[in-house]
Amino acid sequence: MTDHLVDARASRDLHAFIAGLPKAELHVHHVGSASPRIVAALAARHPDSKVPTDPEALADYFTFTDFAHFIDVYLSVVDLVRTPEDVRLLTFEVARDLARQQVRYAELTITPFSSTRRGIDEGAFMDAIEDARKAAEAEFGTMLRWCFDIPGEAGLESAEETVRLATDDRLRPEGLVSFGLGGPEIGVPRPQFKPYFDRAIAAGLHSVPHAGETTGPETVWDALTHLRAERIGHGTSSAQDPKLLAHLAEHRIPLEVCPTSNIATRAVRTIEEHPVKEFVEAGIVVTINSDDPPMFGTDLNNEYAVAARLLDLDERGLAGLAKNAVDASFLDEPGKARIAAEIDTYTADWLAR
Ligand SMILES: [Zn+2]
Predict the structure, then answer these.
(1) Which residues pair with 105 in a beta bridge?
(2) pLDDT of residue 50
(3) Residues within 5 A (CB) of ion ligand 1
């Protein structure tokens, strides 16, 4: 057998290993997880929408040409989520897609401001996501938790609304664990959001802003200093600052790395130039995530395959990555121990075949 064929077989084996590996997903967006199957179901509920319902036309619709097209598709999916029942359907079906990839636990980033601004009743919105969370856990065994994020481009008004929804005792959903900040970074300085993060943290939420995806390492420092980030969404540009790398490693601040997303949004030019290896070599806790998977033509399993290639990992290395995500999650300790043990058993059984 030639080396090439040996390589092909090994890679096929690794893909099969990844497909069955129990995993945790820490950086994935609610609307951004709507697969063509889910979008078709939502579009069928709203025939006046411009989104096609026929699977073939929908596949074309999802074939991205550039970042502007991604934004168009994203917004047209946002437009399909109009009622609490749409919210419930989207959330439950996203959990189904995660469960198929053996995701045992996911922190789903939700932007409640997008829905409440569109007139969805805030109490009904919370009931819809909680109902979907409980139903998904009962049916698929996948645990969902929420990160409510501020859409940075919508300004301080959206920050006020998001922190209110996250901290009001009558509204705050049981599954809410963290508070985030997304949207564009350029022209949206992190420090202005400090008072909102202070309130969320005082209410017991964890701080997980996006930073250093499309701007330099100073944004990551801002997220650490002003927003007291416990994990960093992306953090890609940290690679440009050795002091920052050392700080992230020393304080065990995990990075939520989303390789394919970074290429799709041009945060990184080519996958070969992705700094994930530098992060690992600097001793940083690296977690692998999918961001807006169907919109970037990927899923979490594929992101693990990409990471295996970039980091030259075998099964044990991949199991280590999966355990990083479990460790870096905001799940309780017994829950973490249970998934970690499951990863160990799965890996040992696989290697003993
Ligand atoms: Zn993101």
Answers:
(1) 24, 143
(2) 82
(3) 291
Tokens of residue 141, six digits? 């065994």
Distance 5 CA to ligand 1 centre (A): 37
Q: How far apart are CA 46 and CA 24, in angstroms?
A: 33
Report d(CA 1, CA 255) in Å as an integer.
40
H/E element, 147: strand 143-151
Q: Which helix or strand (DSSP H or E) is residue 51 part of? A: none
Confidence at residue 65, expressed as pLDDT on a 0 to 100 scale: 66
| DSSP 3-state percent helix, strand, coil across the chain (nearest 5) | 60, 15, 30
Q: Which residues contact 262 (CB under 8 A, 6 or more apart)?
A: 213, 234, 236, 268, 274
Ligand 1 centroid – CA 233 distance (Å): 6
User: Is the Cβ–Cβ distance between 255 and 285 less than 8 Å?
Assistant: yes
- What is the Å distance from ligand 1's center to 28 Cα? 6
| Full-model pTM | 0.95
Which residue bears the tokens 């893909």?
15
Ligand 1 center to 182 CA (angstroms): 6
Q: State the residue for tokens 């096929």.
A: 12
What's the gap in Å between 183 CA and the centre of ligand 1? 8
CA distance 87 to 330: 23
Enumerate the active-site residues.
213
SS (H, E, C) 219-241: HHHHHHHCCCCCCEEECHHHHHC
For the chain, the first-to-last Cα distance in angstroms comes to 22
Residue 59's pLDDT is 80
